[in-house]
Amino acid sequence: MTEKKNITLISLNDYLALGSRNISSFLKESGYKVDIIFFRNMISNEKLSSAEIEEDLLIDLVRRLDASIVGISVCSPYFKTASQVTQRIQEELKIPVIWGGVHPTIMPEQSIKVADMICVGEGEQFMLELMQNLSERKSIDKIKGLWIRKNGEIIKGEDSAPIQNLDTLSYPDYSNEGKYFIEANNIYEGDPALFEDKGLVGSWRKGLITLKNEYYMLASRGCPFRCAYCCNSFLHKKYLNQDKVVRWRSVGNVIGEIISITKRFPKIKKIQFYDALFPWDRDWVSEFCREYKRHVNRPFYVSTHPHVLKKENLAMLKEAGVEIVGFGIESGCEKVRREIYDRDVSDLAIINAAKVIHDQKIEPHYYIILDNPFEDWQDRKAGLDLLLKLPRPFILIIHSLYLFPKVEVTRRVLSLWFGKLSDKEIEDWLFKQSQFGMDFTTNPINDLFWKSLYSLTAKSFVPKFLIRSISNSRFFQKHPKIVVMLAKLCDYIKFAWTGATRLLKRNISLKNIKNNLSLSQFADTYH
Asked: What is the pTM of this model?
């Protein structure tokens, strides 16, 4: 007689948790009991380590749920937390732990030293086969993508290919059944995306993912580009056939998910597509826009790339309701983009793409990596000149460069710092950094002068000649705090104007404005 095993999934620092939600719904459809614990909703890299009391609460909750196996989704920045939690579950509860996600896929040798098992690759079909074999007491040694640490030995399963037909997968699991989240030294029962306690939500987590306003989803998996800072570059090396890496769901499947979720939660006002690159094939876009306008008819957000953005496609998306289109600039210096980031995009391509978005009266979001060791003063100046050539207004989202395992930019940064290193030396360095919270910018440049100037370029009310004058002024270069104060003042002005405009258009509530009055995240990142 088969006794179906039950599983507890732990999502670290991620309430969106699309991977865990997809696996949960896929297993539930086959009759398995699945619980998900959302362990904190961290955004800031300054607070990656978990408080001991919260870990105690997590262990007690896992014990109470009496799982046969525990699965943890692990991203590289949370390796330290994942290791701590795993070791406590193994030692105190004697429950086997399996890791899945990006980190064990890229760093299996390191991950299997901590976890009892790891999933190398995508997890839905893999986890179903694993749970079936465990429930039927069959051997799991031959499951593709599974690595096992058993009796001091490591059994490595054959590689599994990425799932080709994404339409066979279930929609993400949004429900209060079997959901828990741990935050601010407390356990809350229910899905954090559906949490209703107004007295708690917002006070300790302003950035809470919620279905009251927006829905986040994927229309595809993979990315056709191989940027040197992104894990997709590693996946292209692992799976040489690009068709196996980049996959699109059918339009009907995508629209079906949106219809399903908006029927259950009609307060959802916007759809955000979280794809690395939204499908930009003309036929796919044409069908999507027709069906989206007919069945959904809500504003939405998509990502693009200067090389795939086409005027006719964007016009169709605009007609269907797209409000925001974002793409990465990454470096304002064309040489750094090409030679360091492996991003073969010219300044002209960026400017032309920005003009296409501007002509359609769509809000553009641009992403740029400012804290990095490759750009000198002239490179920063070139970046400023490029931003000043883009049609205004726009939203500029500034990132630091973080170094992740098995991506080429990591080798380039460490070679710059330490000289030529072997793969083993690079992995050792990355491992040591993970012990301190995986903040790979151990010597961040934090150039506030340039960050402040860059942020000013996004404001239509700040004259371009003033920005150029400040950038050339030796006085302001010696006294950058004045520029920082100016940038923050302009952030507040733009924030107030944007909030008032959206309030009048009923795109935002007074509560939303109140929850963001601190501007802590907005002023540091969005400009």
From this structure: 0.89
